[in-house]
Amino acid sequence: MAEAPKMRPPIESGCPDPFQYMHPLMIKNFGNWAYHDRPRPGVLHHVAKSGDEIWSIRCGTQRQLGPYEINLLCDIIDKFGEGYVRFTIRSNMEIMVSKKEKVEPLIHALEDAGYPVGGTGNSVTMISHTQGWLHCDIPGTDASGVVKALMDDLHEEFKKEDMPNRVHITTSCCQINCGGQGDIAINVQHTKPPKINHDLVANVCERPSVVARCPVAAIRPAIVNGKPSLEVDEKKCICCGACYPPCPPMQINDPEHSKLAIWVGGKNSNARSKPMFHKLVAAGVPNNPPRWPEAGDIVKNILRVYKKDAKDWERVGDWVERIGWPRFFELTGLPFTKFHVDNWRGSRYTLNASAHIRF
Amino acid sequence: MAEMKKPKNPEKHSTYLPLDQKKSSKPFHKTPLLDQLESGPWPSFVTGLKRLALNNDMMVDLLGQLEHSYKTRKGYWKGGTVSVFGYGGGIIPRFSEVASMFPESKEFHTLRVQPPAGNHYTTDMLRKLSDSWNKWGSGLIAFHGQTGNIMFIGTTSEKTQHFFDEINEYGWDLGGAGPCVRTGMSCVGAARCEQSCANEPKIHRLLVNDFLDDMHRPALPYKFKFKVSGCPNDCMNSIQRADFSVIGTWRDDMKVDQKEVKAFVKSKSRKYVIDNVVARCPTQALSLNDDDTLAVDNRNCVRCMHCINVMTKALSPGDDKGVTILVGGKRTLKIGDLFGTVIVPFMKLETEEDYDKLRELSHNIIDFWAENGLEHERCGEMIDRIGLSNFLEGIGLEVDPNMITHPRTTSYFRSDDWDQEAAKWVQRKAAG
Question: Which domains does chain B have, with CATH numbers?
Fold first, then answer.
């Protein structure tokens, strides 16, 4: 028997130690910071108990970076910063410097290279997003494109801190919602049951696990054209698309009928209120590349109303809790429909069981 | 849409695209839809993809396929099985369904690589990673994916192993993909944030690096995510996105620098402080005194962080720090959105014995779930199915009223062992 080629065993080193890449002032003052402020949008200023100060300049990027962008940004960081950088959860870069005099030149260098500085405090920060048509196997839409189009429009809000509180927008290219909870979320919404290619099901799909994936028990095994396949009770089907990943012949994406839905009021933080999930406010929005103008208009309208009506420190969700949903739909002009009324398990808790009505 | 400013130095700008320097052999596909995403002030990923395509035929066809998706409004990637020697996961395989039209990008796999806790990099390391990926892959890197991985996007099955071998030698390891422990996330925390109540990188690495076998060889019911936030602002979104959420907190009094409170009132006005600090406290635990100092009812403070966020200089967390642990957060499939549930209201993390307790708890939870979870059932869904009390019994924790919003309202339940259970509570209270 021929000897198998010798393979290199992996080094299972796991998550790397961050201290080897950390700014020296962050190592020195680890766990001993006193307070912070924001001298201007896009800049965080942290003061340690030792008296040390560090400035972090935050800039937006296109998230997917190639060698040109990485070298361009690293050249700027080496020349105007101190060689240390970190990324936020929303794909913004934070470049740390130990001297106040370095802040303005660094900002200019980043902006001169086309990278906006902002995304701090009460701004509309970078939209957290998914892979979409670039790489996902089940996307109903693109992700980077929606984000690029919207951030072009919200560019000024990224660079300013003019909102009542921070605004986290997310996008997701299917209802699994990998983009996460957001003050405003733009997610694909399927509107038709899957179209099944019965010729392929038997060879491609493990049928019992597909049946088990359906949250409403609408899928059952069936023989179609003499071949083992699956069928969907279309009246029961909620078009969630859960059957598509384990069984790609159950195509849920539909160029004509896959729409976008807009959700508001998600909040991750425990500040003031407990964390909140986002809630549906609009659906049936066209999935319209390359710039998705209809979705953008709804988002911009919600932001305009929020900016005008919310009080300081109210996140979108806090604001709607105060003014109530009837007022939200009145102020935004969005239609309220039977589809906004939740009918999932436990949903009666989302109904108004009181005489609390605003007039 | 705002217009883009004309670059001062066009060769050092996100819009730079030297078409006259094209080295790839394949001509560009026509991309009229994607081209519309090259204008506007935000850095354009399309220009970035085109720059890569100047040197790389794979990216020429990738752009062609992406344009095809924009035109037909459909995705064309399917999964498969690709891994590196010794591992069963960590790679997202992608094979094109339209490879006949775009053959050069027929394989376009992503490697998920774990970033350092807190996402810190030196420019040297970023350049090094970029060079390795440019050598073995498309050159395109996403910092970071939604689970927290560095996503090295686009290479063939063969080059996957070469790239991994190269970066693994200088300290980088694959993350999770599939039914396994996933890449963890932790905030910047103690490295730069005065609100941090924990050693986030230590917790993050202690938990995740203890489960590397369960990460690299997927064999759990479904995914399992650890996320660590240093304070209840929960910048890592752990309550909504982590199966195991660790959140820094404190149990003594929060710290108030009354001199700074007075200075804040003076600079912002009393009305501002009453409207935006006192009135926004969710448990009415704050009151502004007549002399512009702040009274705090610490027994009723729920550590929401709001007042500390507003008055960063005057207010800060207390000294007796530790963590709250919640289990079972996840998004929508299959039974609907689930927040994490408190299972440990407070745990001190100072000594190595304390950290061992945290490690033991994580093992108990994953072992119990691996044993009792159904296929494709997240930990939170299992808890929903079997009830929190059964879960707690399974992992050896006692009930605590901090775990609930309010006691049961349904009157139908069996209370056979009421006296014994009540006695346990009395005993625990007596033991302190």
Answer: 26-72 (no CATH), 77-169 (3.30.70.2500), 185-250+322-431 (3.30.413.10), 255-316 (3.30.70.20)
Closest residue, chain B, to A300 (C-alpha)? B1
Distances A325 to A181, A287, A297, A316, A341 between C-alpha atoms, Å: 19, 26, 20, 12, 12
Contacts of A176 in chain B (CB under 8 A): 331-333
Cα–Cα dist B72/A183, whole Å? 30
Peptide bond into B271 cis (omega under 30): no
Minimal C-alpha gap between B265 and chain A (Å): 16
Assess if residue A358 is contained within a domain: no
Neighbours of A77 (CB within 10 A): 25
Decide if the complex's ipTM is over 0.90.
yes
| Mean pLDDT lowest among A107-121, A234-248, B37-51 | A234-248
Please judge whether B117 and A15 are an interchain contact, meaning their C-beta atoms are less than 8 angstroms apart: yes
Closest-CA distance, A167 to chain B, in angstroms, reads: 13
Please, which residues bridge with residue A279 across strands?
A264
Which helix H or strand E contains A263, and what residues bound it?
A: strand A259-264
Asked whether residue A38 falls in the same domain as residue A107, the answer is yes
Q: Are B28 and B60 in contact (CB under 8 A)?
A: yes
Q: What is the mean pLDDT of chain B?
A: 96
Residues A166 and A275 in one domain: yes
- CB contact under 8 Å between B146 and A180, yes or no, is yes
Last residue of a domain, one of A216, A251, A286: A251
State the virtual CA torsion across B150, B153, B159, B165 in degrees, nearest 10. Answer: 0
Is residue B272 pLDDT above 70, yes or no?
A: yes
Task: With CB atoms and an 8 Å threshold, state whether B70 touches A34.
Answer: no
Q: Residue A177 falls within a domain, yes or no? A: yes
Predicted pLDDT of residue B3: 64
Q: Which domain, by its residues, includes A93?
A: 18-112
> Which of B52, B71, B114, B122 to mutate to test binding with chain A, by most A CBs within 10 Å of its CB?
B122
| DSSP-derived 3-state class of residue B400 | coil
Q: Mark whether A29 and A151 lie in a shared domain.
A: no
**Three-state secondary-structure class, residue A253:** coil
pLDDT in tens, B41-69: 999 999 999 999 999 999 999 999 999 99
Q: What does the DSSP assignment read for A314-333?
A: --HHHHHHHH-HHHHHHHH-
Q: Is residue A181 within 8 Å of residue A170, measured between CB atoms?
A: yes
User: What is the CATH number for A243?
Assistant: 3.30.70.20
Q: Do B126 and A70 touch (CB under 8 A)?
A: yes
DSSP B2: P
CA distance A359 to B63: 54
Query: How many domains are there within chain A?
Result: 3
Of A33, A70, A275, the CB nearest to B339: A275
State pLDDT tens for residues A26-54: 999 999 999 999 999 999 999 999 999 99
What whole-number distance in Å separates Cα of residue B203 and Cα of residue B190? 12
Among candidate residues B217, B192, B166, the one with its CA nearest the CA of residue A18: B192
Half-sphere exposure of B150 (CA within 13 A, CB side): 29
Q: Does the structure show a pLDDT above 60 at A221?
A: yes
Question: How many angstroms away from the CA of B7 is the closest CA of chain A?
Answer: 6
Query: What's the count of helices (H) and strands (E) in chain B, helices before strands?
Result: 15, 16
* Segment A67-76, tens digit of pLDDT: 999 999 999 9
DSSP at B256: E
Q: Which of B188, B281, B409 to mutate to test the interface with A (most CBs of A within 10 A)?
A: B188
Instruction: Indicate the residue among A210, A233, A251 that finishes a domain.
Output: A251
Does residue A231 sit in the same domain as residue A87?
A: no
Q: How far is A73 from chain B (nearest CA, A)?
A: 9
Residue B240 vs residues A268, A330, B81, B299, B331: alpha-carbon distances, Å: 7, 30, 30, 27, 7
